[in-house]
Amino acid sequence: MSNHQLDEHRECDVVIIGAGVAGLSAATRLREAGHEVVVLEARDRVGGRLWTREIDGAMLEIGGQWVSPDQSALLETIDALGLETFARYREGQNVYIADGGERVEFLGEQLPVPAETEAEMERLTVVLDELAAAMDPDAPWAHPQARELDTVSFEEWLEAQTDDALARRHISLFIAEAMLTKPAHAFSALQAVFMAASAGSFSNLVDSEFILDRRVVGGLQGVPLALAAALGDRVVLDAPVRRIDHGADGVTVVSDRGTVRGKRVIVAMPPNLFSRIDYQPPLPRRQHQLHQHLSLGLVIKVHAVYDRPFWRDKGLSGTAFSPYELVHEAYDNSNHEDEKGTLVGFVSDEHADEVFALSAEERKQRILTSLVHYFGDEAGEPIVYFESDWGTEEWTRGAYAASYDLGGLTRYGADQRTPVGPIHWACSDFAGHGFQHVDGGIRSGWAAAKDVIAALA
């Protein structure tokens, strides 16, 4: 990796903008095919939405971190890079807090709700699984009920499915707060079904034993770090791209560290940032419209580190859920062979808006109070406390990923990866399988590389 000034007229076959897993995976495949690449990264690091940092002596995964059994592209990459994984701690009782503050300990994945609500949740899960099974995640707009599902919000769809408000609230929790990090009235039922289909089923999506199975020893940023190390000086940091001149004879990419000339370019960053680049000639109307109908969600990832995992002494797994708490879910996030204990919790969408209006100290106390409700007074006294706020990151501006507004997926989705002349697109936000996950980012990078290799043949 390099942060030196580029040669004034550096040339290659393919310029890649963004050194997240999508861009680095594309670059790796292109190099394997014999093509020369240059990767331009705006940040002073690689990894995009993967970032492992040491905060006050504690190793924290600021961004994405979990690996599930179905994420075959990620697992293949981890294996190829020689990285190790370890299982998330999950022994003992989970915690649920009901409406009114009642705290209940329970085992397994089924939340401790009234029998009639449990039956409704199981019925709704079957309905969503059937809808997801009828969807090709690579083409959700081709679903038999695509327009019908895309023109109604997920909240309205749930209201039409059941009168059980508690069942609706819990089903919504798994898609809205936990995944898309937007209120359920802000995205369509089709977007919700797509989220489920991208994970194999809604059942997979709500199963924390499955979806949050393992972590990488040393942090998931180890994947892009290793990919970038193999690419060496082809990866240039601190190089925000300002302009792409493109035409039949190739592309000229202008960055803060110099200009690169190539035959093709892959734009590999979140779609909400596409418009930060000046395209000459301008992108077609279709692309301009498409990019305006995508937006990232908002979530605070809270890290609370303690001198030991005290909850285990109480027979607790560290897993907690409640649609009534500020922290709607929490997990044991202790690092591999680390004597310290770490809890990770999440505050999403409008709840994040609410606490961001407070001072940093007030916000911290509100969040820790929520953890105390789950785990007891000791949770209120961490030795390290940190909030991941991707909404303030200049080159991300939200989390976890981008999704369409109502009707956007059927209206624009089929064109989201369509090249514009020599310009190609890659990001986890455009993935089918593994949408908004690292696995999807890798798949998207591989797909873009395949398209470019065919175009250069």
From TrEMBL:
Entry-linked SUPFAM superfamilies: FAD-linked reductases, C-terminal domain, FAD/NAD(P)-binding domain
Gene3D superfamilies named in the record: FAD/NAD(P)-binding domain
GO molecular function, one term: oxidoreductase activity
Domain Amine oxidase as annotated: residue spans: 21-453
Alphabetical list of Pfam families matching this protein: Amino_oxidase (PF01593)
Protein family per UniProt: Belongs to the flavin monoamine oxidase family.
Protein name from the UniProt record: Putrescine oxidase
Originating organism: Agrococcus jenensis
